[in-house]
Amino acid sequence: MPKFTKAAVAAAALALLLSGCSAAASPSSEGKAPAAAEAPKGLTTAGKLTLCIDPEYAPLEYYANGSSGTIIGFDADAARALAKHWGLEAKFEVTTFDGLMPGLQTRRCDAIFGGLYMSEARLAVADAAPVMSAGPSILAGPALAGQFKQPLDLCGRSVAAQSASSNAARINTLKDECKAAGKDEPKLTEYPKTAETVLAVMNGKSEALIETNVAASYMAAQNEGKLAVAPGVFETDTTFGVFTRKNDPISPVLAEALKALHKDGTLAQIAKDNKLDPAIVDVH
């Protein structure tokens, strides 16, 4: 198969994933507003809530023009709402997906608002407050998607996943399940960016890709006729969280702020604005 340069991947990602984006946040939402609650102490930058984010994950966080400029999506909008709740300005510290947790631990940011599962491994090294219910989904070409009805249907198949993600970990776990069932292991290939997992399937390098249900629906919609979601392969049994450093004073304050934004309907409205089911934020 032809190899893609970084520039080509970026251009293809824009065409495939962002062609129909319309759920943009207003840049003015980043500005200060009167505090509705006392801001947490010890912030990385005074007067700002700094958030580590990887803007490569539509519809949760992505660039409005595909590669630079304003970061939009559910997580970005909710991060701005969180900052506004405290009368702060939201500041985004852009990093790669596998750099999110290191960025938090080295105090490049106060929190990660970036599509991370509340997995046991992450909760062992950081605190997290729930913000959205989620689970893994399988995408494949329309002709193949119907063949995936349960996890073991992925045995012996080539599967793409984002590097260092819980979805990649799920396929690694499935390898043991396939072996126990007397089947061949799935062949996992990990990519730094979600756009590259889409390209892997479109170019025939992988037969399927695993992604969260939130992003999977968006990817299928933006690639109608080329990608389809295989429904019900995995249970929706995980939760996205906003991560803070372990035992940091900001942790309980942030958790209470998210509860307040859920109670007053702010998070549900942000979900609607980003064409997501508002029920996904009912995690409190």
The CATH topology label of the largest domain is: D-Maltodextrin-Binding Protein, domain 2
Beta-strand percentage range: 15-25%
> What's the architecture of the largest domain, going by CATH?
3-Layer(aba) Sandwich
Major beta sheet summary: 5 strands, mixed
Domain Solute-binding protein family 3/N-terminal: 48-278
InterPro entries: Solute-binding_3/MltF_N (IPR001638)
Signal peptide: 1-24
Keywords: Signal
How would you describe the overall organization of this protein?
The protein has 284 residues and is α/β, with parallel strands linked by helices. The protein folds into two domains: 41-135 and 237-281, D-Maltodextrin-Binding Protein, domain 2; 136-230, Periplasmic binding protein-like II (D-Maltodextrin-Binding Protein, domain 2, 3-Layer(aba) Sandwich). It contains ten helices and 13 strands. The chain has helices spanning 6-17, 74-85, 100-105, 120-123, 142-145, 166-180, 194-202, 213-222, 250-263, 266-273, and strands at 48-53, 56-57, 61-63, 71-72, 89-94, 111-117, 126-134, 136-140, 158-162, 187-191, 208-212, 228-230, 238-245. It has a five-stranded mixed β-sheet. β3 and β4 form a beta hairpin. The longest helix has 15 residues, at 166-180. The protein is globular and about 55 Å long. This is Transporter substrate-binding domain-containing protein. InterPro entries: Solute-binding_3/MltF_N.
